Amino acid sequence: MAVMDPRGRKVKILATVGPASRSPEMLEKLFRAGADAFRVNMSHGDHATHAETIASIRAMERKLGRPVTILCDLQGPKLRVGTFKEGRAVIRHSGHFTLDRNPEPGDENRVCLPHPELFGILQKGQRLLIDDGKLRLRVIRADANEILCSAEVGGVISDRKGVNVPDAVVPVPALTEKDRRDLSFAVEQGADWIALSFVQRPEDVAEARRLMGGYGSLMAKIEKPAAIGRLDEIIELSDGIMVARGDLGVELNPEEVPPLQKRIVEGARRQGKPVVVATQMLESMIESPTPTRAEVSDVANAVYDGADAVMLSAETAAGAWPEEAVTIMHRIAAQVEADPGYAARVHFIETTPDPTTADALAEASASIARALPISGIIVFTGSGSTARRVARERPGVPMLVLTPSAKTARKLGLLWGAHAVSTKDIGSFEEMIAKGKRMALRHGFGVAGSKLIALAGVPFGTPGATNLLHVVTLSGDELSRYNERQA
């Protein structure tokens, strides 16, 4: 049976697929519980497993009659230490520890750092964070072969633990050889979004876009402090942004992350690009059937800020309660959006329209929806750009997006307020009005007497030509004819 009704909320839910959720049965449960999009994490698993997951999602999409969004998340360059003689060692607190280019197994005094590019850039006073920041080293002296450090926070270090370098732009490409293989795989599999990890510069985004060859949409993950200095440029070159709070929280002090989250969300919203808030949103639900109050507030704050989507990571990928995690996230979002104060809070950002007809009409549609009892906004689009413009205004009514492109319908699964439907193209104004009304009734966007706004471009089928805004009213006769066809 096709899933027709809108979710009843505007923010989207992105659920990560993993061992706990990749079965066809669990994927359908997550979708019915409220997941709008699924993240395939290329850091884990092989291509055969990922291909099977993507095939299961597409099969569910056909079964349920709704476009389903797939995001493939590239691993990015991971810096790691080498190995130890006994598999592990203890770095003494306040003691000295050396990272060098000697491939011999390490001990409590030294270990190999198999990344020669780091030896030429690190300077006295800069930090090295190991194992997600559990160990903190401060550089005393660095040359071409050794980096002598003082351990500000010591502890146990073991084989191949990750290294973060927060105080320098690391001269490594955002795309490793593995990422290039994974990106090619994602394109072949028809992924709707590809997420680029550890973006530091706009050039990283440009390189990934070149390799994508015009296919799919590119999401830049903001998880390096270096990216903040060039945030607006990165947003401009990307199709969407992810606030990746995991590594961002490792490389920054914890208290620095919340204001940066708001700044990134605000920057993406100003440019009308979808923005996802990710990592540890309902972390305790990996093991517990209920979240903490702090986690509920965290999700709620992201919704109040107007994020396009909120993401579940290990909660759905490997947790014991994947369906419950999606259900609770859906309930939090719906409750926030039902708050009478939500509209005022979500509009704390002023989004100035560009001097184009399409932007002016998108802004006008939101204004009309505030002035009249409008039930919804119907957007006819080929590329999705008109829907993105309308979503930037955060209108107080839902948006029904009608597009002849299945790819566009899927891509919009991460766009605030968009209920996308893939349908045949229109050829005339009369056909536009008739189809808009019919689809509004079918998808629960109105009843007899409801007013709706229709946005489209004339001549029809011309990309980027949005130049028409029309207010329509659903009549009782139309509702009767629709009910007769459904009987």
| Span of the ends, CA to CA | 15 Å
CATH topology of the largest domain: TIM Barrel
For the record, what CATH class of the largest domain applies?
Alpha Beta
Q: What percent of residues adopt helix (DSSP H or I)?
A: 25-40%
Summarize the structure.
The chain is of the alpha/beta class.
Describe what you observe in this structure:
- This protein has 487 residues and is α/β, with parallel strands linked by helices.
- Helices cover 36% and strands 22% of the residues.
- The protein has 3 domains: 12-76 and 173-341, Alpha-Beta Barrel (TIM Barrel), CATH 3.20.20; 88-164, Beta Barrel (M1 Pyruvate Kinase, Domain 3), CATH 2.40.33; 357-486, Pyruvate Kinase, Chain: A, domain 1 (3-Layer(aba) Sandwich).
- The protein has 17 helices and 21 strands.
